[in-house]
Amino acid sequence: MTAAQATDPADVTTTYHRVDYSETDQMGVVYHARYLVWLDVARTEHLRRSGSSYRDLEEAGLRLMVSEVTVRYRRAVRYDDRVRVRTWVRDIASRRIVFGYAVEHEKRGEVLATASTALLVMSADFSFARLPEGIADRLRPIPDVVRL
Predict the structure, then answer these.
(1) Domain ranges, ordered by start, for the chain
(2) Which of 3, 60, 91, 117 is packed most tightly, with the most Cβ within 10 A?
(3) What architecture does CATH give domain 5-138?
(4) CA-CA distance, 46 to 48, in Å (whole number)?
(5) What is the pTM of this model?
(6) What pLDDT digit, counting tens, does each position of 78-126 carry?
(7) Edge-to-edge strand ranges of the sheet holding 111-123
(8) What distance, in Å, lies between the first and last C-alpha atoms of the chain?
(9) 25 is a catalytic site residue
């Protein structure tokens, strides 16, 4: 994936990725688990663009652990397709963040998949923790960009 790019609205981060041959299965389409990697990269870029990286959180003794993933596959993605992944915060609480995603064909604008991930805020010893106020303030929830 390439670096995040500012989009409108400002609370949405867009990353781009060209599908590599190694990401496809015997049917010639992207293997379903590869989407999880794309979501992880997109979420990391969204956090970075919001002013906090995963590294910053880890240095503060915090971890974001995925507690739930939902992916709705709508259209096949194939080798050499160029996709964009738009990411935003759907909901935030002191101990949980929910991100939304739209995976789209870059040229056609067609929605290929939609997804949601819920992450729990944990301390380094895996007990529940709270997001620091400054970070929570920068991760503003917005209405879904597409219907998930």
Answers:
(1) 5-138
(2) 117
(3) Roll (3.10)
(4) 5
(5) 0.92
(6) 999 999 999 999 999 999 999 999 999 999 999 999 999 999 999 999 9
(7) 5-6, 13-18, 82-92, 96-105, 111-123, 62-73
(8) 22
(9) yes
